[in-house]
Design a protein that fits this description.
The chain has about 350 residues and is α/β, with parallel strands linked by helices. It has helices at about 15-25, 40-50, 70-80, 100-110, 125, 155-160, 175-185, 220-235, 250-255, 270-280, 300-305, 320-330; strands at about 1-10, 30-40, 60-65, 85-90, 95, 115, 120, 140, 150-155, 190, 195-200, 260-265, 285-290, 340-345, 350-355. The chain has twelve helices and 15 strands. It starts with a strand and ends with a strand.
């Protein structure tokens, strides 16, 4: 038996329907499908619940994390922690799967500790069409470097603590798992005999500042550098200092009762002082933080002092404040329930977090 896990946040329902239809048409039904919805808007989540009523094989897990950074690793790990099947396939919800795909997984589950699959990418025009899998015209195919669509031995994946939850935003989390498996001398196999998975085209605004979700401008680059160190270190286990696959909906109810409130500015010393104080003195509390631009920031007086080489306050621009706060959450507080908002028009930041 195989568990198929798909992760979601506000994806187009047409993409999701295409994916679920392809799973519904499998030649074998010997699998479970779990969708982990990690922070869709209330409207999108309600629509998703209605959609999956037509697909009896689908189980839906909801995480109220819409005002948090996207963390695909945690979404996957939430399903992995409760997985009771011997095999665990990590897919994407924007894919279409060949009718023989699950049958092929069954055939290959004993051949390696992890088997990953080539993907065919469809054009925007081709993605709009409704036709049999083999009738689609593939624009291009992935190579062995694309590691996202992977079948794992469940116990082997659990033995390395699943996916590394350092990775937030987009990129590198799937390759990291493969690297750590190889570091642990596990067998990783690439299947490219036939193209059994097709990627449906979609815009990628969710990866940019145009998105209304929390966004860090350099996360993809940081993820890539973090991955390089994982390769060099020979590390096998992730998430050794923080519980992995953790989500408790009761923790999020606590966010309604604020116990400490801080109002501060983008002065460097204030921001760094706040972060240190939170980590040292506010454990167990629900804290509200509001950050606005300092009245002297970019003022004529401040600029004049700098020109005259006089002592002046040091400021971060609001994007730098945003990135610094989000990095602190990723490194030290990623298991904490929180609500985060950076209004780029007014350049105000608000954070509510249970420490």
């Amino acid at each position: 038996m195989i568990t198929v896990v798909l992760t979601n946040r506000n994806r187009d329902l047409k993409l999701i329907k295409g994916c679920l239809k392809s799973l519904d048409n499998q030649t074998t039904k010997d699998f479970y499908c779990v969708i982990v919805d990690y922070g869709s808007s209330e409207k999108n989540f309600k629509s998703l619940k209605i959609l999956i009523k037509d697909f009896k094989h689908v189980n839906l897990v909801s995480c109220k994390t819409s005002k948090q950074l996207w963390c695909k690793s945690r979404a996957i790990n939430i399903a992995l922690k409760s997985c009771n099947t011997p095999y665990f396939f990590v897919g994407d919800i924007d894919m279409i799967y060949h009718p023989d795909f699950i049958e092929t997984l069954t055939q290959y589950q004993l051949k390696a500790d992890a088997t990953y699959f080539q993907v065919g990418f469809l054009s925007e025009e081709e993605s709009k069409k409704d036709k049999p899998f083999d009738a689609f015209n593939i624009k291009f195919k992935s190579t062995h470097e694309a590691t996202g669509m992977t079948l794992y031995n469940t116990e082997v994946l659990k033995s390395i603590n699943g996916y590394d939850e350092f990775y937030h935003g987009w990129g590198s989390e799937d390759t990291d798992v493969h690297v750590r498996l190889k570091n642990a001398n596990k067998h990783v196999f690439y299947y490219e005999e036939n193209t059994l998975i097709l990627h449906q085209w979609h815009p990628k605004t969710y990866r940019s500042k145009l998105s209304l979700e929390p966004f860090h401008s350099q996360l993809e680059t940081i993820n890539q550098k973090y991955l390089e160190f994982t390769k060099k270190s020979g590390n096998t286990k992730a998430n050794q200092n923080l519980n992995w696959g953790y989500y408790n909906k009761e923790d999020y109810k606590r966010l309604e009762t604020i116990e400490e409130a801080f109002d501060l500015t983008n002065e460097l010393s204030e921001v760094k002082g706040l972060i240190s104080n939170l980590l040292l003195n506010c454990q167990g509390k629900v804290v509200s933080i509001s950050i606005k631009k300092h009245s002297e920031y970019k003022s004529i007086k401040h600029v004049a002092k700098k020109v005259l080489d006089k002592k002046v306050k040091t400021f971060l621009d609001m994007q730098e404040v945003n990135d610094l706060l989000l990095e602190s959450i990723i490194l030290n507080l990623r298991n904490a329930p929180y609500l985060y908002n950076f209004d780029s028009s007014s350049e105000n930041i608000s954070l509510i977090i249970k420490l």
